[in-house]
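Side project, low priority. Logging it here so it doesn't get lost.
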Amino acid sequence: MRFPAPTAMVARMIEVRAKAIRTHGTLDAALAAGALPDSPEVSVVEALLLGLLRLGVRKYLAILGHGNTALAEVVRVYHEHGIVRLFPCRNEVAMAHAATALRWHYGETPAVLTSIGPGALQALAGSLTGASNGVGVWHIYGDETTHGEGYNMQQIPKQEQHLFGRLSSAMGESYTLYDPGAIRDCLRRGAGRVHDAYRPGPFYLQLPLNVQPMKVADFNLAALPTRPPIDRLAPVDDDAYTGAVRLLRHHRRIVVKLGGGTRAYSGQIDALLQATGAVAVLSPGALGVLPDAHPRNMHVGGSKGSLSGNYAMAHADLAVVIGSRAVCQADCSGTGFERAEAVININGERSDATHYNRTAALVGSIDAVIEHLLDALTRAGPSPAEQAAPWLAECGEQKSRWSELRKQRCEAPPIHDDVWQRAVLTQPAAIGIVDRFARRVGAVKYFDAGDVQANGFQVVADERPGETFTDTGASYMGFAASALLASALADEGRYCIALVGDGSFMMNPQILLDGVEHGVRGSIVVLDNRRMAAISGLQIDQYGHDFGTHDRVAVDYVALASAVAGVNGLFGGHDAAALQSALERAHAYDGLSLIHLPVYWGDDPRGGMGVYGRWNVGTGCDEVQRLYHAQRI
């Protein structure tokens, strides 16, 4: 079939609008200068692009297909005029991860563009990382036509309406743009979700194929929505703080549990700790909120946890939970606060703030709530911090034990491994070397799922937020390597190191191509034990056998990486000196490097950092559930 070309007038007017915005810098400036008519006739997809532009979306990660040709053509024109940029990718899951990292790490809001059906399903799957970690990204998918003329190729093959919209709505907020007149409403709702002050997440926009090129007459550009403001909110009723202050002054063994929502509030958190005499325990997503050596930082606590973090949680009589979703990795499947008599919960989401029983819920912005709470605490009289000194000393002893254990594990010599038939580095030792190197050169670390992730958040010694990103919300295999792409797309990209297992890397290896295509400068360290070590270990701990979680296939990762022109394939060796040398060579390379590192797996306890909490899985379910229902909170 031959398709008619767009009329010369339509094509010319797209160019005119693009040139006007380029000349004046922004859509609003072009409107103010009279360079654009207030109410032109535009296509649905150009109206959408202009609306997203006003909301700050200038970068599109895309896999184009028959489901988005109309949108792609408009993006092409604006891309060629330097107003937006389109980055072609090779896998929708990886593309979704890169978009999540671009927003999460760099604060830039991109859009993910896919065609219809399989591509949209893959992007939806990859968006689980953004949904789980509260990261707002626009997801724009092609969708079936609206006239019911028959099945569209790649649609969900079922005789029901709005199927993909219903599917994506299970993950978050979804909108199917059936009517061109709904563009403004669509953009308003999407902006509210993507830029939500407390729990942002992906917004899924379905664009039916036949709606995309439809014309919208007299489209009011000035009425396009702007990004919603983020207000600092806190309870205004003094009684809310009075109850919390009463708890803080009564208890002497206070633990402050920090979730991923606290990453921007280090100063306020520190002030609260000093005023109350509390100790802090990190969730895996809160690394760096307090410096590693901070005397009140007891490190990570939760299902994996640490000696000191889990001790503080288990022995506290009051839990102050801030910016946390109470995921299993943060509170041992609801059993982490064994002796807590009450909870103070600070969160912008009411459902999260009231998760525990016996809770004084302070719903609002973390910084504003803490400021009001500290003021109320000051007005109540002398600080209770001094009376909590024995608690700090007690927890400090546990921290010393943990620090010594971590030091020993990170300094463990290479251990003989049955797979490699020689001595190789352990994961804690390797991660410790990478962590120290990253801090020395100012690199940011991305951790993938599994043993690499768990050992990673136990080992790293971050000094500030933003030194480590780890998807502990979804633990999505393939996230870390895919996320490297964001460093090339960001306005001010950083040198990043992705620490991944062999299985995770093979989930999304196309970063080797996308990384070269778009100019990534960073490195991937593949910790290869030829198995899903976290699951193998779980199987052995629970049932005494590992099964179906390892393979016998040797992969030459250096050759694999080197086969892609522009990728620097390196072997990490078998000891600390060799790995250090590989990291130096990777950092000196002006492009993407991959370091293959064989690592130990076996029953030697030095091979991992250990487990210090509980998890409602397998043989542990009965005990965890018994403890959960026995707790007062």
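Brief comment: The longest helix spans residues 389-410.
Revisit when time allows.
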